[in-house]
Every structure is written in structure tokens, then in C-alpha cells.
């Protein structure tokens, strides 16, 4: 509530209209808020005089506004129109004196105001703090607030313009930005709810859609500058490339002061969570620029009450409902003429109109042509005629016909002028066109080996003054913008350069084929030199993330150079290890499609790429496609190569992994065992490939239910990797997770939890929280905690993993389903039964769609739905599901597999509850005997079968037998797990044991 008891001169609490140029809206909004705090009504009135209207009439039109007029004068206020100093002098002298009591002014100009502004007696607000600026505004208006009557500051109040947002990362402001006020106001109205305090925003996600060169990015940047004071965080992300966008989003974690490590996914997750909950900042704006591929970017867009602005060439965002669309069209003719005359002062209104017509009011072309006219003496009439005639050859430039004629000619003239003034700058510009236009790696080029660059560019890079001069020449062309490193140095180095994609594409298309080949080879050499040659080392991941956006632009995918192809293989391996499977698959498919007819399928590069292709398909759950790719390679190599050929063994190893994912465990075992034996004979038992193959063999042992063999295998692999590799190496960590998993599956819960606690902590430190390998490690930890009885910790970790896995890998990814399956069983026992039922049934259906009706994971998760049905009292349905699961698992895995024994345990319980005590007893006896043979007398599943059998005997009034079995089971559980373990307590309390199916990672 505002206290309106103020003391002022005549007109106390009067209404005040604030006139401002759009460029300085933050000042107008802040002044308005200060006055409203004192009880004054205010109106914001944007000043934008029509070019064809007398200035005196426009100025007099302000008098129609309510109350007094406060003019916020800045560099732009006197330039809009544009209007000449002479017009201003005449208009002010004509309008202001008769109405001196209505006019007041403040100045926030960075340059000296025209002398004629003196009659407005503006109060200077530059370089002041908020208290002094407020005092001067009130003094100029003759308002004196009563002491102690100011309202408490509101968290939603406009920020003082001299105090920027706490976190700010936006391209520098375009001081020549013109017009677009309607779009900006519409955008602000949708995001901010119209005006401060008017309620919830209409939208939180807006997509600016339009053709290339129409000014979408410029509008987004101007919105950030003009309305940025409404926010605490304003952050710009170049979204052309997913990898670069992830890096930029992750950087926000540091700026927000979030307590996270350096791993990319971990920082992105922390940023998403901080923005979602609004801590440490509630008011935020994120801008995703050039987000044309929605599939690659959508999962990076945060949720929450903040605002997201997207610029895009497509309608995918609005079509999918992910954002509301505002279409950006070319300038209106009035905007075009105004911009052209401000950019090139010598243009008359008629010439500016003709130029605008020649370039079809497209802002990018208008900027290019007006800039050239401002810098060169050619008459506007002659220049416009050249553009209209569309004859770029007149200035010695060859142009592709794919571009609009106005663009072709104007850019040709610009390039020709640049070539005359700085030939080296033109060559550098051409090389820039072979890197991603959003982040051209200037330091990488400057530090390239001399032999990587053409001689004239190597000489340029060797001389810092010449290098920086060439860069400045490029910025003068308006096609290139430089971003500088954050540094305390007086002369900070250039970090990246950006080029509009329209110019970027044109430069490439304009070169001869020989020029393109030459520049592509140069760019490839620069990238090869920058390759750390170690994609598995987490310390090198930042460099690989920097390299990947440039691969396609540089021509890496088309290069026959073995060194360049090795760069591509290293980048794909980095993506595999890091878990960026979609991007890895895309690179594999692009290379294979281009080289399938040009390279023998048995060449090393093609074999490795095909192997990785199948790898990526399998890791994305596209198992049948992966099998087809892998089988074709194995069949071809088997027909041509010796059985011990390294390429054949790698292909067989990959195919075995796919067969394992498909549930063909016996076939996978046969292949893995043969490959391991061949590697042992060929390379020795401790060679890296032999150990990897043995690790795979251990994994299939586990899936076959051969838990002791799997434990020994993983223990041996872990011991060697701990000796030969560093303890924090990702292969060592992976072996540690596999070993701890086997301890858990064997019922050694205390040992498993202890081992996995350390392993998960190291994963987080080394690989971060969002790599698939870390997710698997933490998932195993959650299961260890659950089986050890640490329910609260297991609950918190499992819920977090469900969310993280969905964000990192998608809701239908096999490993997301694995986590969700286990969370469903946890909720059934410890949480929300309704949620557990819905989640269990969704997971079972998705496994059926993914792997087929007869896959063990489909059968096992179906059995889990039966357990939750039983909890709801639907005993008939629960029995039917349990019997179907037992039958299906027996067919898939055989009667003695631990999974089948678990299904049998559940089926016996379902029979018992359905009053089929004899059937339960018969199945229970068989299950117990098989469990003893398969798992041993003291395995938790064996002891569960013994406890269950005791209950079935009691149901048939065979109390003596039941008591003996029960006593044995309780004592054995006490001896193996402890007297206070949940399994032991449940057996004492005669709670019927159950078995949860847990899908294993493949």
C-alpha cells in the first residue's frame, strides 16, 4: 500500500506523463515507479516522431497527454525521425515557452545534448546512484515527499538503470537499432503480463519466427537491453549447435554461484533446478538464438516462472505447442527509411526510400548497403541502380544465383571494397566461413601451427597488431562481430567471432571449388592440431566439446585425409563415452552416407564408424537396427578375414552387445567367450581389449544368472584396472560399479553398499552427475541402500535419478525405463500405491514396445504389475499376471534362472492368496530346491523361498514342518544379513516375501 501523504508544490499528486525514446525505456519505467510510490499517477509515452510530420506538430501533440510532461532525453531522443538540429530549435522555441509549466526534462545522454535542449532545463542523471537520481527527478518536478512516507522496496520493482542485472550475458547493444517498437511491446506484453503488477504473464516462452536476415536476433538483443532491468538474470545462448548450447547453458551455473563441479550435465541440471525453483534469482530471461533444430535444443529449455525467448527460422516451436509464436517481418517502409537515413546521413528521404525498395526492406541488407554508402563516395543513385540491375560482376565478384539479387550485389560491393583495403582480411574472412558461424574460434586460429595456415595467414597470425587490424576491418563490414575474453587486461584478446549465417553461407558458395577445398583443408588442419588425441580422458572433454560444432563446417566429414578422419573418430568416441548418443549417431550416419559408395566397407575408418554406428543405435534402444548393422559387418568380415582378425573380433564383440540387449543371452555369451579367448591368445590376458572383452563376458554371466562367475570376472578386471590405470579412470570406475552390482545380486548388501558409496562419489567427482555411466553408478547405489534397509536415502536418490535420467536420456530410453521400473517397485513397498501402479504399468508397456512381448525385461516388468495389483486386492488379476510372468520367464530363461525363481516365488504367493494352498505348496517346494542349487542355501532369494514355503505349510495346518523351516530361515537371515535387517524382521513377523524384477544395464 502506498502512503499518499506527501508535501509538494501546486498540483500535489498530479498525473505525470513520461515521454521517452524506446532505447531508454528502463529509465522511464524506473522514474514512473518512483513517482507512483509517492502517489502520483503516471503514463509512459514512447517518443517516435513521424518522418513526414513537422516536428513542432509532433512536439505539440505531447500536450494532449494527461498532466505534466517529463521528457527523458538521451542520444536517441533528438535523432528519431530523423529530425535536424534546426528543426529542433524551431520546434522547442515554438512549443515550450507558452507551456513552460507543463514541460520538464531529465537527461541520461552519454553525449552532449543539442544547445536547444537548454530551455527544457534537464536534470542530469548520468553516473549517479539511485538515491541521488531520485532526488534530482523529484526536485526537477518540484515534488517534496514527506519524511518517512516512502513505501518499502518491492522485489518486483524496476531495477535502477545504472545497476545492471546481477547476472548478464548479452551481445553488446546495437546503437543503430531502429523501429520494431510494436514487436518489442507485444513481446513485453506477453512475457510481463502487460505492465508491472498486472498479474501473471500471458506466456513464458516466445518464439520469434522469420526468414534469415529479418532481424530476429537483433530484436531479441534489444529486448534484453530495453527490458533487462525487469530481471535479475539475463543470459544469451547461441543455439545453432547443441554442443555449444550445452556449454553456454552450463556456464550459467558458475555465474549463479551454484555448488557444482565442472561436469557439463551436472551444471546444466543445477541450472535447470535453480531456475525452476527461482533460487537464487526468481526473475530470469534466457534467450536461445538461432534454435532452428527444436529436437536438438528443446530439452535444454528450462521450466519455471522465468521467461524464455527463442529465435528460429522454423515454426516447429509453435507448431508443437512448446512456445507461442511472434512472426518477425521485414521493416515497414517508414522504419527502413528512418534506419537508412540514420546509418547514412547523406541520404535524402527519397534516396532512402529507393534504397529500401531495392533491398525489399530486409534489415540485414539495409544495414549492409547503408553502411557501404556511409563509408564510400559513390552516389546513392548510382549504387542503388547497381543493386536494382543486379550486376555484381561490375565490381569483380562472382555470385551464386541462389541468393537474392540485392544481397548478391550489395555484398559483392562490400567484399570488393574490403579486398582493396585489406586483402589479408578477406582471406581471413573466407577461412572464418569454414567454422561454425556462431562461435568462430579466433584463438585457435591465432595459435595454430605455422604449417597449418597458408603462408600469408601464418604471417598475419604471427604479428598481433596486423592480426587485430584485420579483425577490426572485418567488423567494419558489419558481417562479423567480435566477442572478447573477460579479462583485467587493458587490451583483452578476442575469444570468438560471430558471422550472420546468410553471409556465412554466401561466402562459401561464392568461392571456386579449388578455393573451398583449400580453405576446408586449412580448417581441418587447425582442428586436427587442436585434437588432444584422448577422448576417454575427462580432462580433455572441454576441448572436444569445443571442436565438435566445427566438424561439418570445416569439411571433416568429407575429408579423405587419415588424420582428419581420426579426428572424427576421436570426437565420436568422446560422444559415446560422455553419453551424447544422439549427436554421435548423427555424425556416424552423416559420414557413412557420404562415404558408402566411395570407401570400401572393410577399410579401418569405415569399420570403426560402422561399429560406433551400431553402438549408438543400441545405446538409444534401437536394437533391431543395431543388430542388422552389426550382423552385416560380421558376416562380411567372417567371409574375408581370419578368425583372429582384430576388425572381425571388434565387430563380433559389438554384435554380442546388441544380442545381449535383445535378450539373446546364450548367443551373446558364445560370441563374447570366443572373442575373449581370441584376444587372450592374440594380445595376452591383460591387454586393454582383452580386459574389455572379459568385462563384457562378466556382464553376460550376470544376465545368465551365473552370479558367482560374474563376480570373479568383474573382481579380476577391477583389480587389474586399479593397478594399471588410475583409480579415477572411467574404465576403472565402470568396473567398480559392475563388481558392486554383483555383490548386491549375491545378497552381500553391506559389502555392496560400502563399495558402491565410494564408487558413486568418484563418478560424481570425475564424470559429473549427468553422464550415463554416473547414472548407472548412482542407480546401483540406490538399490544397495534399499536392500540394506536405508529406505529414506534410497527414496531421495531414486526419485532424483528418475528425473535426471529422463532429462539426460529421454523418457523412453532403456536406462530411463530401468530406473523407473525400480522406482515403481520401491513406491509399491514404501510410497504411493497409485503412483506405483501407474508407473509399473507404463514401464511394462514401454518395454513391450521397445523389446517385444517375449523379452525377459517385458516379462519381468509385467510380473511387477501383478505385485501392485495384489496390493490393491485384485487377487484374480494378480494371480493371472503372476502365472503369465512365470510361464514367460521360464520360456525365456529356463526354470532355474534367478529371474524365473523370483517369478515362481511371486506366483506361489498369488496362489496362496487365491486359496490355492496346494498349488502354492507344490510350486514353493520346487522353487526352494531349485534356488538352493542355483544360488546356494543362504542367498536371500533362497531364504525368501524357505519363508514362503513355511507359510504355505501353515496354511495347510502342517505347523511342525512350517515352524522348523521358519526357524531355519530366520536364523540363516540373522547370520547372513543381521538381526535388524528388513528381510530378517519380515521373516520374524511372518510377512510373505516377494521378489521384484530389476532390469540390468546392458
Write the layout of secondary structure elements.
Layout: E1 7-8, E2 16-20, H1 25-37, E3 42-46, H2 55-61, E4 68-73, H3 85-95, E5 103-107, E6 123-124, H4 130-141, E7 143-144, E8 167-169, H5 181-192, E9 205-209, H6 216-227, E10 233-238, H7 242-255, H8 264-277, E11 284-289, H9 294-297, E12 307-312, H10 316-319, E13 324-327, H11 333-343, H12 349-358, H13 363-375, H14 380-389, H15 405-421, H16 423-432, H17 442-446, H18 455-462, H19 464-476, E14 480-484, E15 494-499, H20 501-510, H21 513-530, H22 541-547, H23 551-554, H24 562-578, H25 581-595, H26 604-619, H27 623-640, H28 646-661, H29 665-683, H30 688-703, H31 707-724, H32 730-745, H33 749-767, H34 772-788, H35 791-809, H36 814-830, H37 833-851, H38 856-871, H39 875-893, H40 898-913, H41 917-935, H42 940-955, H43 959-977, H44 982-988
Parallel strand pairs: 2-3, 2-4, 4-5, 5-6, 8-10, 9-12, 9-13, 10-11, 11-12
Antiparallel strand pairs: 1-7, 14-15
Helix pairs in contact: 2-3, 5-6, 7-8, 11-12, 11-13, 12-14, 13-15, 15-16, 16-19, 24-25, 24-26, 25-26, 26-27, 26-28, 27-28, 28-29, 29-30, 30-31, 31-32, 32-33, 32-34, 33-34, 34-35, 34-36, 35-36, 36-37, 36-38, 37-38, 38-39, 38-40, 39-40, 40-41, 40-42, 41-42, 42-43, 43-44
